[in-house]
Amino acid sequence: MSDRHGDAAVRPPHVVEGGGGDDDDDDDDDDEECFAPLSPVLLDASGAPVIPPVSARECRNAGTEAVEVGRNLNRLGGEVLVQGTAKVVGGKWEENGNYSRGIRGPEDAGTLGKKRRPVTVDTSKAKTSLEGLKISIRQLKWREIPTGRRAPCDIYWHGVSFHDNENITSGQVNKFPGMLEMSRKTNLSRAVRIMQELFPAEYDFYPRSWILPDEYQQFSAEMRAAKESAPTPEPTFIVKPDGGSQGEGIYLIRDPGELRPPAAGAGAQARQSVVQEYVRKPLLVDKLKFDIRLYVLLKSLEPLEVYIAKEGLTRFCTEPYQEPSQKNLGHVFMHLTNYSLNVHSGNFVHSESHNTGSKRTLSSVLRRLAAKGVDVKRVWSDIIALVIKTVVAVVPQLKVYYQADIPPGKPGPSCFQILGFDILLMKNLKPVLLEVNSNPSMRIEHEQEVAPGVFECVPSPVDEEVKVAVIRDTLRLVDPALSKASSTCKLSSSSFSMASVDILYIDIARRWSGALPDSREAGMGLQAFVEAFLYLAARRFKSQTPREQAASLLDLCEAQLESSTPGPEERRSLSCGRAASRGAAGGPKPRTHARHPGPPSPAAAPLPRRASSQDCRRAEPRSRDAHAEN
Ligand code: ADP
Asked: Exposure check for the chain: N or C terminus, fewer CB within 10 A?
């Protein structure tokens, strides 16, 4: 088995199943399986490729050959960034839409160095990921702890949430606290919508959405207005229950009066739903609507590290698509791409190869598009931008969850998580985010009707190959020997990473946005700036009192100003002014040294710059009608 998987990445990518929802949903899980083995792209919060600072030598010292990971990162367009000795292992998208695999050696099986203690993985809570996980562990020659830990493990693989095992104080858990919550339809919608309000042009990949019942009035008013301004084609909306997955409870409407009441006895949360503008012109292949399941690894929040699998799945409808009309609104096999629904259609075809059937690889679809002259590199880079921006939208809340569970100073594990992004391509090739699954299924078998009415779990070699590769690559990326070396992606000696500055900016700008005269205005008002300033000061000068921290940061800023301000007169007046006002406020006495030796610390400088937000600020034109959503 391990040989078989050891060379999995050499073989062409395969189609797997897709489903929709999160977690252990077989359907959803199945759909999510396509991953480009060992060719993730690591991007920082700005979308710029990042290479973990793991040199080949460091890795060899650590006694592992699983280092391919550190040298396997490709820039979006397929340009290869290599660090260390490296041969190129990752694949890339070519002009013709082909997904070419890099050359791989036998070491790709993830063999360990001779002396190293095998990494231990607690698989007792892995649920439906278990089979794929076991195979991956075998391939890496790591050690499975199937019955749960007695001694601490290096990695804990949870099937559902961070809390599947309680009281873990070390190692790594494959779930972030709060991710389950953040990926709920309403929460994701809220997070993206906030960003849409701040950066409408950058976040236009998410359909206009409303959260019901809270925003019912707003929704029906806008729906009426839309109908009046453009009666044809009549606008269509899709309603999605908050906690649903796999297409469960989803329906299309054209009038607020068609909204269905929540199930009797449903709790407050279950009564919520997201209603969303229906994308009426999706890209079709073989006259069928399809969506993309992309695997994304959130490896760390600080610094923000995101890997995107180059291979994905496409899940096909089973009834030829027609734009929504009153007659076809109820045709789920035409409008909903969920595997879990379409598998029940008589037209469903279990894929025999990666480019046929109801579930195909993303690469096979892109190849077809490329053959028709589509710029697939552009499509791919748009998809990556969508992923990064979505991650940036949820990170601030995730950090809050993280700190609630693992406050600074409290011993706790670090976290990583595989996410399943569901994306629809519009006819004009623009990607649209449908949802993010916090628990994409990693099942490597599917149910099949082997005789009329008789269903069996049938191994799916395609699922196995793709999903095992995803899990294995993830494990390699979180290999404890590499993690130690890779946490140095910092801007300054104050341990303040670029991603931190980004998130700080976004978080604070967002929280204070309501205080601005135009709440849609992106940027920092004075109060927000002051908050950010004090935060930076606290981070940079930890051991001082708050007043001293602020004073020290001012000194630092002044030193920087001096180096860039020409006239001595100007410098003097600036210095005096500040000293006087500080004295009057009873703050710490102005320091006589007043200058920090050496280059100015970047801790003070980055405030106005935001790697991930630069793109956003570039976006001048704003469409007033852009809204947020899942
Ligand atoms: P679930 O978690 O239940 O799968 P999704 O949000 O993924 O919910 O929606 C289910 C399916 O409905 C998607 O796979 C897609 O085919 C279709 N869909 C969802 N949102 C839209 C939309 N805004 N426009 C067009 N189709 C959509």
From this structure: N
